Amino acid sequence: MSARVSKYRRIHNLISLVIFLFVILASDTSKILYANENTYNIGKLRISSFYLRGTIQSRPAAAYMTIQNSGQISDSLLSASSPMAGMIDFHETRVESGVAKMRQVRHIRVKPKSMTVLKPGGLHLMIKELKIPPIAGGIFVITLKFEHAGTVDIKFPIKTFSGTKMEHTPKKSTDHTKH
Ligand SMILES: [Cu+2]
């Protein structure tokens, strides 16, 4: 009797697996935006290695990512915005006569069949007018708008800024004694 039950259960599990696989394979992932822990796919673009580097108090923060374009045409990141910041610019760090300088760029281009890497010392998103200081271990949501691929909300994990401790200390009443 119990052998019969387990046989039924096995068949049931097998059918469930087949249905599950069918659903996975049948869904057209090329058009659906989906995300897992490491990547976001939107149109012909794949975004990976994304993170936001925290900063000191209210100083601007920087965000980085890798954008891969598997399409036949060039795409461009036109704008970025976040409910957590007043403004997000595109910057490029360049070393000029031994000094690292940042300059603003209008768009971030991703050529066909290639990838654009935003990384420390190069291209980055400069996040200004932070409404909340980014706390390491948290999430920072940024909406990216691409010329062709469209719009995508990315949850950037927040990392610490090279050893700078960012502690969430509650406001003390002594803060109000000075005016
Ligand atoms: Cu910058």
From TrEMBL:
SUPFAM superfamilies cross-referenced by the UniProt entry: DR1885-like metal-binding protein
TM spans (from-to): none
InterPro entries noted in UniProt: LpqE-like, Lxx211020-like, PCuAC_sf
Protein name: Copper chaperone PCu(A)C
UniProt source species: marine metagenome
Organism classification: unclassified sequences, metagenomes, ecological metagenomes
